[in-house]
Amino acid sequence: MESQTEQNKKIFLELFNEKIRREGASDLLKYLCGTDFFTAPASSRFHSNFEGGLCAHSINVYRRLKALVDMHKQAGDIAEDAVSEESVAICGLLHDLCKVDFYTVQMRNVKKNGEWQSVPFYGISDSLPYGHGEKSVYIINGYMRLTRAEAMAINWHMGGFDNRVKAGDYSISEAYYRYPLAMFLHIADMTATYLDEHVEK
User: Fold this and answer.
1) Residue 81 pLDDT exceeds 60
2) CA 57, 189, 83, 26 torsion: positive or negative?
3) Helix axes 53-74, 85-94, angle to 10 degrees
4) Residues facing residue 124 across a β-bridge
5) For a FRET experiment, which of 22, 90, 99, 135 has its CA 20 to 30 Å from that of 156?
6) Residues of the chain with pLDDT > 90: what percent?
7) Are the CB atoms for 174 and 149 separated by under 8 Å?
8) From CA 55, how far away is CA 116, in angstroms rounded?
């Protein structure tokens, strides 16, 4: 029987190949298939922190972003041609490429039923310490040219959780004002994280 991880890989590949036709897309996909993208977690302790979680999260964000963009088009908030299907797929599916080859399985001792046991957990090994959203933009642009709106959206998708914002950088406000796609991607990412992938604490 096919695992959920395998099913999600098929869904991702179908969406990518159907929606993203830009020059360099096939090279980017070839790169992804040579990494741990389809088996990596989306986080070490929080949302989708399981094998295949990164791919699952990317699909969730794509679906949330598509629904959000469609809703605002229908409401007349943005023009019909303001955000393309390809842009939605690029931003939703690829916003977290910064997490490729980022997590490692490590071991730690945990006391269970009065006895110490060695259990696996996800640690971090960042071989390309380039930031978060900006790192995803850097990786994608190495294979495929992003539009300015797509780059802004992926760069600022963390919203207030972005370390640059925490340090007092207000550029994000201007980015959201000028590029609605950036605001939509942040909302889609948060919705997927806190509704679709909610974890009880």
Assistant:
1) yes
2) negative
3) 150
4) 103
5) 22
6) 68
7) no
8) 33
CA distance 32 to 26: 10
Nearest to 70 by CA among 146, 62, 14: 62
Q: What angle do CA 116, 118, 122 make, to 5 degrees?
A: 135
For residue 77, give the nearest of 189, 181, 172, 158 by alpha carbon. Answer: 181
- Note the pTM of the prediction, 2 decimals: 0.90
CB count in 10 Å sphere of residue 159: 17
Q: What is the DSSP string of the chain?
A: ---HHHHHHHHHHHHHHHH---TTHHHHHHHHHTTTTTTS-S-SSSTT-STTHHHHHHHHHHHHHHHHHHHHHHTTSS-TTSS-HHHHHHHHHHTTGGGTTTEEEEEEEEEETTEEEEEEEEEE--SS-S-SHHHHHHHHHTTSPPPHHHHHHHHTTTGGGSHHHHTT--HHHHHHHH-HHHHHHHHHHHHIIIIIT----
Find the helix packing angle between 85-94 and 180-191, rounded to 10°: 50
Are 139 and 97 spatial neighbours (Cβ–Cβ below 8 Å)? yes
Name the maximum alpha-carbon separation found in the chain: 62
Q: What is the mean pLDDT of residues 14-26?
A: 98
Q: In this structure, what token pair is assigned to residue 109? A: 């001792």
